[in-house]
Amino acid sequence: xxxxxxxxxxxxxxxxxxxxxxxxxxxxxxxxxxxxxxxxxxxxxxxxxxxxxxxxxxxxxxxxxxxxxxxxxxxxxxxxxxxxxxxxxxxxxxxxxxxxxxxxxxxxxxxxxxxxxxxxxxxxxxxxxxxxxxxxxxxxxxxxxxxxxxxxxxxxxxxxxxxxxxxxxxxxxxxxxxxxxxxxxxxxxxxxxxxxxxxxxxxxxxxxxxxxxxxxxxxxxxxx
Length: 224
Hints:
The chain is an alpha/beta fold. The protein has helices at residues 14-25, 75-87; strands at residues 2-7, 28-34, 44-45, 48-52, 66-70, 95-96, 101-102, 107-108, 113-114, 119-120, 125-126, 131-132, 137-138, 143-144, 149-150, 155-156, 161-162, 167-168, 173-174, 179-180, 185-186, 191-192, 201-202.
C-alpha cells in the first residue's frame, strides 16, 4: 500500500471527496492529515490522525515513503502549500477519480485532482494543483493554470485558457478561444463570451443581441 498524507482535514469539504476517491482507486493508505486548525491536532478523523499543521511539511520524518496531496479548495493556499512541498523535495500526488475520463493526449502536472465524471479531453494541459471538480468538462486543447479551481459542472469549449489561481464557479460555461486571466472569479452559472482580465469578477450571462435567427420566419409544418 502506498502511504499518503492529506493536507487539509475538512471531511465535509475537499478532504472528504479525496478520501472517497482514494477508497475507489485502492492501493493507498491515508496515514495522516496536516491541518492548520489547532483544535483538530491529535484528533482522529475517520480513524485517521491529524498529525499537526502544514508547518510539519519540512519535517524529515516523512522521508521518501509518503506521498502528499493538498485537499484544499482555496487556490492561493493550495499553491503556497504546493510550493512548500516542492521546496522540501516531497512527492505530490495527482488523484483522478476512476469514473473521470482523461485523454491519453492530455498532460496533467503533479498535485492535480480530477473528480467523479469529469472530462479532460485531448490536448489539454493542467498545471500543478489544478482542481477539476465533479462533472466538469474541460474540452480539447485547454490550458488550465496552476491552482485553478473548476467547480462542479463547469463546461469549457475548445482552446480555452484559464490562468493561475482563477476560480470558475459551479455550472459556468466558457465559449471557445476565451482567455481568462489570473486570479479571476467567475460566478456560479455564468456564461463567459469574451476574455476576462486578471483579478476581475464576472457574474451572470454576458448576452449579446444577434439579428440573425434561423427560426424567425419558420412556420411549423405539421402533418397529421
